[in-house]
Specification:
Blueprint (H helix, E strand, L loop, with lengths): L2 E5 L4 H13 L4 E6 L11 H7 L3 E5 L5 H10 L4 E4 L6 H6 L2 H20 L4 E7 L22 H20 L3 E6 L2 E2 L8 H10 L4 E4 L5 E2 L2 E2 H14 L5 E4 L5 E2 H12 L6 E4 L14 H5 L8 H14 L1 H9 L1 H11 L17
Parallel strand pairs: 1-2, 1-4, 2-3, 4-5, 5-6, 6-11, 7-10, 8-13
Antiparallel strand pairs: 9-12
Bound molecules: nicotinamide-adenine-dinucleotide and 2'deoxy-thymidine-5'-diphospho-alpha-D-glucose.
Length: 352
């Protein structure tokens, strides 16, 4: 493994992963291939370009377009693809599923075809815990059935199945990681943690869905990057690995914690109409990746603390996004008129 193509590398996790690889492996070259949708941002890679310009290249392109994908592989002598490129926000998938099916399913197929044609050393798919669907009790193992319930998770599940099929049918050497909710630097402020932190900094309401007692595993992005690195180098070819802290937190508890860290009042919490088909709980069994020697180094609480600090210190990054026309229009469409009457979540007596 020497020349890695990181698709979706201008997004949140992909940019953290590109930086991680270049810092860790002085012999590796990285080409980021990214369409630069609303979620892609070259500011995420500014320091990478400056520090590693001789081993880093950027190509703007769509993973659904076979020709530029092939050209990039040839021109950069790519031996490994790590695919982060996707439409990733569940609420947008409920509004407009079209792009999710195209990029997450067809785009993955296009990359797999290229991996097959060029006989690449490895194709790694960055997947999600959401493919297991709502988990009322216990924790999902990699062998559990895949029961996605949103257009986003259904598209990601379709991609996982295609990756598996290319391994079985054509012998493409694949690996898959299924990550929990990542948080940390450079996450687009539509996802709940950066949205709530940045709204709270500006004393704006935090739109908490339903009763806020949905359960998530908020996981630090650099721990996720370490896990992908390990699976790339030591994972079983053809295998899938869950990645998270293996612990749980309600959205209400997460919200209260970040308000406490920022010294802001709980009266900022604004309960709003719940997400359609909202998965109440995800929970991952992380035994398989632990057996490979990986451990999360941040708890959910530590991940939230570091993330809050980063957004406080890096307003240069998120302010232009939030004041942009695309963001403002999305925000209106997603949240206008969604407020719920009645007792606020702060008055909610149930345990968070
Ligand atoms: P993101 O939305 O921040 O970034 C996605 C990137 O993909 C952007 O740079 C975008 O420009 C690019 N992209 C989108 N469509 C493309 C296309 N057709 N061709 C090329 N590039 C395209 O996403 P993220 O949160 O960094 O997630 C990265 C991957 O990790 C996704 O596959 C996602 O499903 C998965 N994942 C995310 C999380 C999470 O909590 N964020 C957790 C588990 C798994
Ligand atoms: O679990 C991994 C997944 O985590 C990734 O695969 C997805 O790409 C990523 O977007 C994320 O999905 P979620 O739907 O869990 O993340 P989101 O930040 O949108 O929401 C987290 C929780 O917070 C969820 O229960 C919904 C709730 N929420 C979200 C938003 C945006 C709110 O209460 N209010 C909000 O405004």
């Amino acid at each position: 493994m020497r020349n890695l193509m990181i698709t979706g590398g201008a997004g949140f996790i992909g940019s953290n992963f590109a930086r991680h690889l270049l810092e860790r492996y002085p012999g590796y070259r990285v080409v980021v291939y990214d369409k630069l949708t609303y979620a892609g941002n070259l500011d995420n890679l500014k320091d990478v370009e400056e520090a590693f310009g001789d081993r880093y290249a950027f190509v703007r392109g769509d993973i659904c377009d076979a020709q530029p994908v092939r050209r990039t592989i040839q021109e950069h002598d790519v031996d490994t693809i790590v695919n982060f490129a996707a439409e990733t926000h569940v609420d947008r998938s409920i509004m407009e599923p079209d792009a999710f099916v195209k990029t997450d399913v067809y785009g993955t197929y296009t990359l797999l075809e290229a991996a097959r044609e060029f006989d690449l050393e490895r194709y790694h798919q960055v997947s999600t815990d959401e493919i297991y669907g709502h988990v009322p009790e216990g924790s999902s193992k990699e062998t559990d059935p895949i029961v996605p319930r949103s257009p986003y998770s259904a598209s990601k599940a379709g991609a996982d199945l295609m990756v598996h099929a290319y391994h079985i049918t054509y012998g493409v050497p694949v690996t898959i990681t299924r990550g929990a909710n990542n948080i940390g630097p450079y996450q687009y402020p539509e996802k709940v943690v950066p949205l709530f932190v940045t709204n709270a900094i500006d004393d704006q309401p935090l739109p908490l869905y339903g009763d806020g007692l949905q359960v998530r595993d908020y996981h630090y992005v650099l721990d996720h990057c370490e896990a992908i690195d390990l699976v790339l180098h030591q994972g079983e070819v053809g295998g899938a690995y869950n990645v998270g802290t293996g612990t749980e937190m309600t959205n209400l508890a997460m919200t209260r914690m970040l308000l406490r860290l920022l010294g802001k009042p709980e009266s900022l919490i604004q309960p709003v109409r719940d997400r359609a088909g909202h998965d109440r709980r995800y929970s991952l069994d992380i035994g398989r990746i632990r057996a490979l020697g990986w451990e999360p180094t941040h708890s959910c609480e530590e991940a939230i603390e570091k993330t809050v600090r980063w957004y406080v210190d890096n307003a240069w990054w998120w302010r232009p996004i939030k004041s942009g026309e695309h963001y403002q229009e999305y925000y209106r469409k997603q949240y206008a008129g969604r407020e719920l009457e009645g007792p606020s979540a702060t008055g909610n007596k149930r345990e968070a």
